[in-house]
Amino acid sequence: MTSPEDALARAQQAAAEKRAGGGYTQPEHRGDALDATILGDRTPDELLGEWAVIDIEPGVTYSTRRAGAPITGLKRLLLRLMRQHLVELEARQTRFNLGVLARVQELEQRVERLEGGSAAPRER
Amino acid sequence: MAPAVHQAVTGAGPYDAVSEQMRAWRRLLARAGYGGADFAGQVDHGARAHFAPLERLEPAPGDLTVIRYSAWSPALGRLLERPGPKLLVYHNITPPGFLWRHSPGLAVQCAVGRLQLPAFVRAARVITADSEYNAGELRAAGAGEPRVVPVLFDGERLSARGRGPDGDGPLVLVVGRLVPNKRHDRVFNAFAAYQRECAPDARLLCVGTALTPGYLALLRTLANASGASNIDFTGGLPQDQVNAAYARADVLLTLSEHEGFCVPLLEAFHFGVPVVAAPAGAVPGVADDAALYTDGDHAVTAELLDLAVRDSALRSELARRGRERLERFAYERTAAAVLDAVRAALTRTPG
Predict the structure, then answer these.
(1) Domain range holding B229?
(2) Which domain range does residue A84 map to?
(3) Same structural domain for residues A32 and A74?
(4) What are the tens digits of pLDDT across the range B13-68?
(5) At how many degrees (to 10) do helices B298-310 and A4-20 cross?
(6) Is A25 found in the same domain as A79?
(7) Could you tell me the CATH number of the domain that includes residue B196?
């Protein structure tokens, strides 16, 4: 019997032996797909630029009911009917976002200039 | 007459762990003679019988409001301005980094929720967390010494049996919402390795409601890309069908990167199902030595699954430890802690 305390070491040994014999070749090279979608505390600048432009596809609107397809259809129809208003709303929000983003970038550059480039480069 | 005890949460649904805890507390509170009702900012259609809209919560002077904190909403924030004692139950808030790309709205609720945690801590007379891990986050938010009141685990609800999964071959079960921090991508890769190297007829059953239809579509794509077959997404299931899945499962797999408690661990222990887990968040604190922990290498996870499925002596030992672990979460013991926290919140002098 393998005790729970010994299980990890035994599994590691079995995995190593199988690898030596040509097994376990695929998944570890493929990596974990969600890694690229999980962000740390600081959102990268290029992503902020992407997010500043508000453009919401109708597909994100749906019903949570079990048989909600007709409700989903109705919601999306209403979005289409309101399109003129929603496009204007998105445009005004985007205008503000891009303005703020440009101002932040300007301030960052100013801080860098004032620090005389002596500080360590910041993580982006 | 006993004062009313109300419960409030940002969102409630038919199957999620926080909503289930609210229903379990409500049954206990009713038996102890407390009135009151349960309120949620957003209520999914399957849960409307149990929850009223949060804006209707009007506590009378002296009523206790139990705030279940797992995400922020403006309506929950406004509760802090209401008079009357408050009991904070912290279920943990998912770090927003997991969610920004997949559900910006929920990510905002989580980001603000983490920022606002100190305000909720200051407003509560009694502060509780359902795990030691969550208590640590409360301490960091200035809570001093919060009480650890575990999940109220009622084994009775696990007795009903619905229709279980069909098929032969080892059944690997994954239970929990389909959200990024549960790392189903790692599950698929580890399961693919297990299927290829150890058990070609193995099946993977993923039980849980998806974050969004788009996220479910992404997971289906990742499952296909892993090269594994026999992967089934059931969506959220009624409890009797979840029970049937546990009854037929050979092993429970959880590779979450962030967990505030992980109720499926206790459910697996109840059914004597061995657990293979990533030692993240609250998982080691809840499962302790009753689970097998992977080092994150998919090949090692696959070999641990194989051991958990095939080594009958190991299975028996894990089942024994699981039963022992369950004693720590015995209903009577937790119920006493819940009622003690409620009484303390009702009687403690503010300040």
Answers:
(1) 160-327
(2) 41-124
(3) no
(4) 888 899 999 999 999 999 999 999 999 999 988 888 899 999 999 999 899 999 99
(5) 120
(6) no
(7) 3.40.50.2000
Q: Please check whether residues B235 and B311 belong to one and the same domain.
A: yes
Of the candidates A4, A32, A37, which has its C-beta nearest B186's C-beta? A32
Are residues B44 and B83 both part of a single domain?
Answer: yes
Question: Cα B327–B333–B338 angle (5° rounding)?
Answer: 135
Structure token digits, residue A28: 């570890």
What is the C-alpha separation between B2 and B260, in angstroms, rounded? 32
Q: Which of B214, B300, B318 lies closest to A12 in CB terms?
A: B300
> Which residue type does B115 have?
L
Q: Which of residues 13-32 of A touch B (CB under 8 A)?
A: 14-15, 18-19, 23-24, 26-28, 30, 32
Chain B residue with minimal CA distance to A60?
A: B214
| pTM for the predicted model, two decimal places | 0.90
Strands (E), A43-105: none
Residues B57 and B144 in one domain: yes
d(CA B55, CA B320): 47
Per-residue pLDDT of B122-160, as tens digits, reads 999 999 999 999 999 999 999 999 999 999 999 999 999
Residues A75 and A53 in one domain: yes
Contact B117, B139 (CB under 8 A): no
Residue (of B90, B36, B95, B101) closest to B63 by Cα position: B36
Pairing of strands B231-235, B171-175: unpaired
Q: What is the predicted ipTM?
A: 0.91
